[in-house]
Known about the structure:
With about 350 residues, this protein is α/β, with parallel strands linked by helices. Among the domains are: about 120 residues, Rossmann fold (3-Layer(aba) Sandwich); about 110 residues, no CATH class. A 4-stranded parallel beta sheet has the order 2-1-3-4. The longest helix has 28 residues. It is globular and about 60 Å long.
Amino acid sequence: MLKLLRQxxxxxxxxxxxxxxxxxxxxxxxRLKSEVLALFSGSLSIRHVDAGSCNGCELxxxxxxxxxxxxxxxxxRFVASPRHADLLLVTGPVSRNMExxxxxxxxxxxxPKLVVAVGDCGCTGGVFGESYASCGRVSNVIPGGVxxxxxxxxxDEVAAQCASIALEVGRLRDVYDDHAGLQDRFLTxxxxxxxxxxxxxxxxxxxxxxxxxxxARVAPGFEPYDRLDVAMKTHGAGDVAARVTVRxxxxxxxxxxxxxxxxxxPLGEVATPFNTVGGRGRGLxxxxxxxxxxxxxxxxxxxxxxxCHAHDPSWQNWPVLEHAxxxxxxxxxxxxxxxxxxxxxxxxx
Length: 349
């Protein structure tokens, strides 16, 4: 025990200092608190329903109840009974087993009430869609969803969040730029040569950090990217430092694109009805995800899907990790692995 106490006294406080307060977040907090006070008489009660999620959204929701975010300090709290709730928060695509339970919970929430569908699965059904096991998006079962424009107020909220994120990421970039020891460890670590990246068909950030100009937003550049002048971020070094640099630069570029999109949202209908085409046909879809391009190949006949192949960027890039770790020390493996930041489950789909 004395040895341990002596070691603690000699070492001192080894943890990093707490983050500096962000004045912009304090402004958002006060505004949110005043809106809750005005709209909900001082408190907003939420009933959460997991309709079939993977628990990814639940992890984020749980964080809101911790002291760091202090949700209850803003007058927002989660309740056990829907009869005490003002808002119904639904996560996941609605599984058939939860369809009746979700309807009953919705009916039990007193009017007037709000419904919020969380995440891609709740809003659109995600990769699960509608099937024998899934009802798809939340609005297929109860009122809600994303069938309305977000309006000017919603656009302003997105722009304000982009500004806040830019400040936070800028501070992280300053910490990284001032940390010579960290940069020294990243340099030459987990090197991926451009020639090897090209041979292995690497996509996304990993490709661009090795000097390959691959970005589905630029080429073929479908709507709306064809009119947003997307700035492709590349780096030729191909090491961990290059992947970190490209990631920082892409975050700022993505924030710029988000601001441009919300400023130029067109008027008119939110959705266009899709008419089923008879006969047999094939289609190919590409979109640039944050890890790389996601490709969907589809074959249909008589209005039904005959075959579908979903190609995930992580699946495409996993083989390169084996080459990137060669010649590096064992403790650097987690660093190299996370610099590619690939998904084990193909989550980008």
